Task: structure prediction
Amino acid sequence: MGHSLYLPARMFNTASAIIPAMKVSELGEFGLINLIRSAVRYDGSGHTPWQEVLVGIGDDAAAWRIDDHILLATTDTLVQDIHFNLDVISWEELGWKVLAVNLSDIAAMGGIPKYALLSLALPGELQAEDISRFANGMMELASDFSVALVGGNIAAAPNVVITLTIIGCSRGEVILRRSTACPGDQIAVTGYLGLSAAGLEMLKGRTISDPETSSILRCAHLRPKPRIEEGRILVEQGVRTAIDISDGLVADLDHICECSKVNARIKIEQVPVHPIVTANFADHQELALSGGEDYELLFTADQATVARARQALHCPVTVIGDIGEEQSARRVTLVDRRGNTVPCGQGGWEHFKHGIAEAKFP
Amino acid sequence: MGHSLYLPARMFNTASAIIPAMKVSELGEFGLINLIRSAVRYDGSGHTPWQEVLVGIGDDAAAWRIDDHILLATTDTLVQDIHFNLDVISWEELGWKVLAVNLSDIAAMGGIPKYALLSLALPGELQAEDISRFANGMMELASDFSVALVGGNIAAAPNVVITLTIIGCSRGEVILRRSTACPGDQIAVTGYLGLSAAGLEMLKGRTISDPETSSILRCAHLRPKPRIEEGRILVEQGVRTAIDISDGLVADLDHICECSKVNARIKIEQVPVHPIVTANFADHQELALSGGEDYELLFTADQATVARARQALHCPVTVIGDIGEEQSARRVTLVDRRGNTVPCGQGGWEHFKHGIAEAKFP
Result:
């Protein structure tokens, strides 16, 4: 049972002839996740805790049952010069951001974050004070959500790699999934989109003369606010399907469609582009559709549930489209006000599909 | 409450004048952990989950209570060319090892591992097949202990950085701590020591002519076996204090002494050096005392409890010394058969204290 050093052939399925010749960059992030998922589907001894697992690989967080509780766990990594640039982001902002992106995954499950484990890989020549600032930025956000940093690990490394794991729980019996969208559902989004990607454009050199606008853009990209409370309210109001917008609206909606085996239609003129983005960026629509890192919640539910959720939430909620039956064609379609299909760029942030030179920063 | 961007002065205490001028490499791994711990001791709102925390930063794993359960969580990172060398370790072995070192931390708490989250930072030019092999090596060990890989994250990076988080539980109300050693306790260790460090010496170039010996050494360093079952038995037999030997016998015993505010005396001739190490390595005693990565359990308890544990365990158990009152002098003392103090090298593996060039590999 599982003592051979190589994957049984069945695990490779159709991919067996392809994998050996592919580079990680060619297979891409989601191809790699599927590769690992196929190795993990191990049906060996029957003594595994799999039966308690509600959600495994492929949602915003893992979920499992323990007595009357649902526990949640998620992990995310930020790599220097891939996800952040120390010339631009302060150590306090970095501490905040690495926690925020992880908390957002718990928000997307409708959960409550509780405990954090921090793993730091650091070059020895860094200043110790910077690590203090990093910890301080992280604890500032942690205290807002009563998250306790309970453990971690520090290792030497040639460049900074930060991995955070959050363990949380669901208050009730229900969590938000990617796999539960139904044809007929409305698609809705919290807040406004594009501000984080616009902030990134500015940090990469796009000039913004107004200091207040500049500050809002910087803050949107470097100090995002996870929608923890909003995720809880969605659960309470009967919503069952959500994801947080990290890769970009179109890409993240595509994840929902893939997991739910449905199609989606976005009415492009209804997408709530942030007014600062519209006012300052010619490519505002592209930034809102594909920029990513908004950390808003994208959710689907029937019309009445969406109306109820909108009533209960303390933030803007916009209906941007609807879910349809699965088709063999493109999973996410953009339409204009006349219902005509609008061409959609590749969009969305996927690791390895970007070269490091053009990778997202900071 | 906690919205300033800088640590309140009280958090720096005596260190406030020192931190700004120090490099990470000068402060060292344990100095950094203390730095982060001081930022984390946030006594703000009172709504934090801290009161449920049994063990925070500074033990082998974090522990907290949820109803009648104790949950455990630990995370560890392996960095390419710091902790492993891809010219020497196979991808299957790497998958095994990153899980094993994390499981060992759960073993040192007397816990049962349940769920794993994997974070991979990878260069794009790697072969996808290697990641399959890595996952397969990990799942081989995971299936031995019924551990479910439930989530994770994949990111692009210039070199391989692997972070694994394990979530486990304790079957009863008790866990093994570093902080509970008492004067009068015996100090005992499972198995034999030095084999992993000797394996590393071999992999770095020391010639071992006998193929079987070579294979045992390689396996000890690259495919360590976590003492999960043994940790459980220690708890059942009444032991309350343990650590796994990752940094080295002397260094890890020093961690127990620091946490328990006691001193320790090792009778050097009683240390169970593995016979293969004694037969093949002139510096066998140094390898057993300071080599590290044995992933054996080092524990303390009164004489009757140690005797009971030894009876119950299915592996060798050796009493190697005893615990004494805290003194201002060196916490861990080595003595020969006549009771004379033996000089003890720096010993033990600490990140940043070694230059990368001389760092441990693979």
In short: Chain B has three domains: 1-47, 49-170, 186-342.
